[in-house]
Every structure is written in C-alpha cells, then in structure tokens.
C-alpha cells in the first residue's frame, strides 16, 4: 500500500499472475466486500463495468461458492457507462452483465437493477444521461446527487480511459452533473452515456481492473499521476480506498516503485 498522510485515502496495487486469475480474484474480493458492507449497513450500492475482464469477473462471481451468502435483495446495481444502443444489444454492458451474473441471481429484485436507458427508450445520449441522473438522485442521501457507492468497478483502456471518459475529450470537462452523454467516442460505438468524475468521486471504494501488456503504459502513467487530459484513469479515487487490480502483463516494468509494497 502506498504511503498516505492523515485523511488521505489508501491506494493499493495488487498484481495477479494473469487475466484469468485476476477475474477470479476480483469476484472473490467483491463477494467479501458485499458481505462486509452488509454487516454494517444497507442497502449496498455497487457499480459494474464492462470489458473482457469486467465481464469475466461477473462470470466468476456467478459460480462463486459464497455467491448466495450475499443478501442480493439488499444490493443495488448500477453502471459506470453504457453504449447507447437498443435494449438487448449484445454490445451493451447491461446485456453482458445480465448474461454473466444478474440473470443467475434469483433473489436480486428487478427494481434494484438500474441500467442506463437504452436507445429507443431515450432519444439521445443526453436524454438517457438526464434520466439516469434522476434515478441516481432517488437513491442518494438528501442533498446529494448520487449514492455513496460501496464499490465502483472501472475497466481501463490502453489509452487510459475509464468509463466513457476519454483522453482529451469534452466529457472530461463536465461538471455539476453525475452523468453525461458522449458523442464521437474514439472507441465504437460513438454514442455513449457515462458517469462523470464527480459521480465517481462519491464512491467509497474505486477498483480499477486492467489486464494485458497493452494496458501497461496507461497503468504506469495513471499511477504516476499523469494529467487527466492525457490519462483520465489518473483522476479516479475512492473516498476510502482505491484499488488497482491488475495482472503481471498490465503491471509491466513501468509501474512506479512507490506502489511496489502494495503488490500481492
């Protein structure tokens, strides 16, 4: 764990042998986190991510032996970003998460699953974002725009983007709202909906999950504190803790030495 001054949230870098082990470890860590939180408060709010490792982690959680120890009736499920496509489209994070995990949880109430409105249900990404912001506010403490997410999962692209917050993209500058519509995404599809940095910053714990040698430069850049316009992932942190869960290939040789003591 990196050194932290008084009041500074901890940052932990955990390196796993490969992407498969990483996905299994994320699943185990998530089960433990949910159980720990449920022992002290309810409901629990978790934000899911897509991507290869993100969905693999949900698949691992679906078959985890402790899965049903979680009281899923007290869990609310959110997303950090979404592709603005029709409901049921196989490229939507929601569709993939339902197939990997959510459809296998009989005690998870449908009303506790909060997907970002799809194309068709919303006319534009902005309309979807506005509707999602309203739903977030319904479950937020008085005076807040979003719940204090107990864990917020983020994938990261080789360019250092998280959610749908891309380098040198207008979405980086959005303030005053927890959600934003995205146009001209450098990664297809071009239209998306995303949580903003302000919403992500409300999470108690933020977990950045990354695997593969192509992610190594971005991991090193983010951990070194690169400018947000260059590496958006550098700007994300939880109010209590920030975990970087990576495999050996993503850790590479450029991971800053001050995080070495946090490796496990």
Describe the structure.
The protein has 264 residues and is α/β, with parallel strands linked by helices. The chain has a single domain, classed as Rossmann fold. It contains 7 helices and 9 strands; from the N terminus they run βαβαββααβββαβαβα. Helix 2 runs parallel beside helix 3 (93-100). Its EC number is 3.1.1.31. Pathway: Carbohydrate degradation; pentose phosphate pathway; D-ribulose 5-phosphate from D-glucose 6-phosphate (oxidative stage): step 2/3. This is 6-phosphogluconolactonase.
Describe the SSE topology.
Blueprint: E1 10-16, H1 19-38, E2 44-48, H2 51-62, E3 75-79, E4 81-83, H3 93-100, H4 125-138, E5 151-155, E6 179-182, E7 192-195, H5 197-200, E8 205-210, H6 216-223, E9 241-247, H7 248-251
Parallel strand pairs: 1-9, 2-3, 2-5, 5-8, 8-9
Antiparallel strand pairs: 4-7, 6-7
Pfam family, one: Glucosamine_iso
Domain Glucosamine/galactosamine-6-phosphate isomerase: 18-244
Protein name: 6-phosphogluconolactonase
């Amino acid at each position: 764990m990196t050194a932290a001054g008084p009041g500074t949230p901890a940052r932990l870098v955990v390196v796993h042998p490969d992407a498969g082990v990483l996905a299994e470890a994320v699943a185990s860590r998530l089960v433990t986190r949910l159980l720990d939180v449920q022992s002290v408060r309810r409901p629990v709010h978790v934000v899911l991510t897509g991507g290869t490792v993100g969905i693999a982690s949900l698949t691992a959680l679906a078959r985890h032996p402790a899965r049903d120890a979680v009281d899923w009736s007290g869990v609310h499920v959110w997303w950090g970003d979404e592709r603005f496509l029709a409901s049921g489209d196989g490229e939507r994070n929601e569709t993939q998460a339902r197939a990997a995990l959510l459809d296998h949880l009989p005690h998870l109430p449908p009303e506790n699953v909060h997907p970002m409105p799809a194309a068709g249900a919303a006319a534009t990404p902005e309309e979807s974002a506005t509707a999602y912001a309203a739903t977030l506010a319904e479950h937020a403490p008085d005076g807040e725009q979003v719940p204090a997410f107990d864990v917020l999962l983020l994938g990261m692209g080789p360019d250092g983007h998280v959610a749908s917050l891309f380098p040198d993209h207008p979405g980086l500058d959005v303030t005053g709202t927890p959600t934003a519509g995205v146009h001209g995404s450098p990664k297809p599809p071009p239209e998306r909906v995303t949580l903003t940095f302000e919403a992500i910053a409300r999470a108690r714990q933020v977990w950045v999950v990354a695997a593969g040698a192509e992610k190594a430069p971005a991991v090193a850049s983010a951990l070194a504190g690169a400018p947000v316009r260059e590496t958006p992932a550098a700007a994300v942190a939880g109010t209590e803790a920030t975990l970087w869960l990576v495999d050996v290939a993503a850790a590479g040789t450029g991971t800053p030495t001050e995080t070495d003591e946090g490796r496990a």
